[in-house]
Amino acid sequence: MKFAVLDFETTGTQSADDIIQVGLALIDHDFSISSVYSSYVNPHKPIPEFITGLTGITDEDVQDAPELDDMMMELVPLLDDVVLVGHNVAFDFNFLQNALDRCGYLPFSGRILDTMDFLKIVFPSLGSYALGNVTAELGFGHDRPHQADSDALATAEVFLKCLDELKELPLITLQRLSDLFAEEDSDLGWFFDGLREEKEREPIHDLDGHTFYRQLALKVEDWTELAPARGEEDENPLADLSFGQYMEQVHDNLRDMLPQYEEREAQNRMFDSVMQALDEDKHLLIEAGTGTGKSLGYLLPSIYSSVKNGQKVMISTHTINLQEQLRERDIPLLTKVVPFAFRAAVFKGRGHYLCLRKFELKINRRDFVTPKEDLMTAAQMIVWLTQTEHGDDEELNFGSRGGDFWETVASDSDSCLGRACPWFKKCFYHRARHEAGIADVVITNHSKLFTDVKASHQLLPAYEQLVIDEAHHLEDVAGKHLGLHMKYFTFVHGLTRLFKDSKNGQLPSLRQQIQGSGHEKAVEWTSTIDDMYPSVIDAKEAWDQMSELMFGLLPERSDASPGEAGQFVMRFKAKNHPKGWDKLAALENQIYVSLGEVVRKGDRLISEVKEDYDDYSAESLTTDISGLLKDLNTVRENLRFFTRLDDENTVYWVEANGQYRSKSLQLYAVPVDVSKQLKETFFDKKKSVVLTSATLSVDKSFQYMIEQLGLQEAADTGRLMTTQLPSPFNYREQALLVIPRDFPSVKGSVGDANFVSMLAESLAETAIVTQGRMLVLFTSYRMLRQVYEPLKAALENSDIQVLGQGVDGGSRTKLTRRFQEKRASVLLGTSSFWEGVDIPGEALSCLAIVRLPFQPPNHPLVEAKSELLQQQKKNPFMKLSVPQAVIRFKQGFGRLVRTGRDRGIVIVYDTRVIESYYGKHFLYSLPGPKMEHMPTGQMVPRIEEWLHNKQ
User: Fold this and answer.
1) Any idea what the Cα angle at residue 564 is, between residues 562 and 565, rounded to 5°?
2) Where is this motif: DEAH box (predicted)?
């Protein structure tokens, strides 16, 4: 078998476009790359500028190149009797067939394989499948990305690496993959078939590395084998060791391991403050800026306290990202430097873990909604099971429909068979739960923390001490979890999983099984199922009508981006029904009644089937159906709570976006003030709660956070400690903050022509001096759109690329990566770029803040909080809007200096920081950069001078 790896560079992506370069790497029978053919092709028309920008291929390169006919004369013989391989092969194959046709050859009729498919299956956890990223990740040289010969060679290397990995897979895994693709008449199926046959001829030698169970190979053993870090009879390693002595040993070990390690004063203060709070049963608010080493700052005291007292410490983060960082980076380091054995476990929400029972059932029954995508996801996961220790969806890089697939195989409490499940001892959720049970320190997230509160503390192991990182998000998450949040699809997915049509869904599957069982009650049961279908359809139709009506009530928001969830927002005031609400209420009542019928009949049926009909796969189905009925009942009650609009302490609102209209509907009902619930749940009940973040203070004071989080009583009774740590960075030397004092101001979220042209001009001039490397933060998407084109035009001759969130496609992570890859770039971002984006070093030298980040005053939650403050005779602007904006402003400012060597400029184009009575709160809250204001005209020379005066 010979492979030919093909890559074309072309003048565009349409079939009318022309080939300008070809690369073909030939792989011989012995799996070695025997030769690489490459040639430019003259397209007889100018190469578009963006193609030259991407590939580096110019009109001069191709002017003396061979014609298409001449190139094809050389290429065609090389394609004789080969399997054609490409990265995103459909693109190159399309151009190949066109070229063969134009030059009078027969079409290529051999087999075709795509390295994208192989990468997804073999490396299901890779962050990106773009060729450049894959070669970097796998350590292959790829010196000229987007040049055909370099791309073809890189793709060939990647293909061979995938083949090596596939050959190492256990036989049972290859058999599963071969079975999976067997029903597809595809070249991938043919390939896996051959691979399986080859493996079956080899002697079996891979039994040690995996656990084999029910036709799947897993990386992990039974979780019941996992033991605590120290036995019960072992004496406490900290019995005679003070915290100071313990830290001394840790510091010594850190120095031995990391020769460049040096103690930081701020971090040492953090160790002591956290330890004191845990030791004296006090709460602590501690602000620790970038570079403090915050994670170790709370992890080391937590481990000491937990092991010394034999009591678990719970640690909660806002983002899964930070949870992963603690798991991947900080815990492995601490395992080496802490002078005794300890256990730290990561425990996420249940839906993050794979349910092996559901997965087995799904692939055995080939229960695929979108066959092509679902097959690929199933194949990814079969291989992933040979690699994963956690069974956590964050490890998987899914395709577009992967999320829908995951929803059907994720673990959830309502459909869990517990000890009766044949997979119980292998179960990933129960493994994580067991690990948390025997751990000294458990790392969870804010979401799970509140889900646990709602479930009467049944989910997390018991704890008395809690550390909350990224604590400035706590109030927001509390509101969402203690309130209600429901999406259009929350409702629809549940219904379609129960019944999609007479062949698809859990009810039709159960019906089929019962019908074929010959059971005496089969007729009675199948007719009950048939009776349920109309009610399911009624509920779905009523929900669609209700969603349409609700979407019709929403006005458009002027400052949101087209795809943004909150582009359409409408608040409904309690006890104040808007016009046309009676129609909505009637539809809700219809849904309530129909779903009530489904749940009542379903529950009765399931309990009868469970009692009278003994069959494992039926038991599996009835458990899942039972779970779905519980979910639908919850949805039904939530919808009723929302439609009644009768609780004055709750803010009700609806959001949607224009792209998906009523299908994007989200319903919220959130408590206006969660401080009382936070106080009762955490600060009154727990011995010690430590809250930390880089942004907790406003004006060097914690008062705003104390009030928002319900800590006032703790502060009054001396149970609350507060600490603000100095930043380890020298901001005076590392950051210059510039304010153009004569810059025009803006009313609302849209700039006038004068403002937009001045802003674009100023940004362009600055970008040229800083050679790009610039992040521009907007508070409104409309304004970002206004500035994007003129800024692009102003920079088009300077080789600086402009990237705009929502304009240039891709997620935040993808845009950040593109920004870092090309040094001369300007990135325009809105809300999600104000925090959590980490661009250390040279890649970011200038941060521009266009407007102070006040939340839109008409956002339902802000509006309701303001009304509450007015009732209490307080000023909502100073008590709420300013502190919220200051914290966001500090988050934005924090993007610039990420390490002790970073140096950069911040420009604030909003003159309110120096003109208004509240502006000083913003500037005074920053960690002490050099601040200067000047006329706009003097700004660029000053920036240039400052950048060149690097000490």
Assistant:
1) 130
2) 469-472
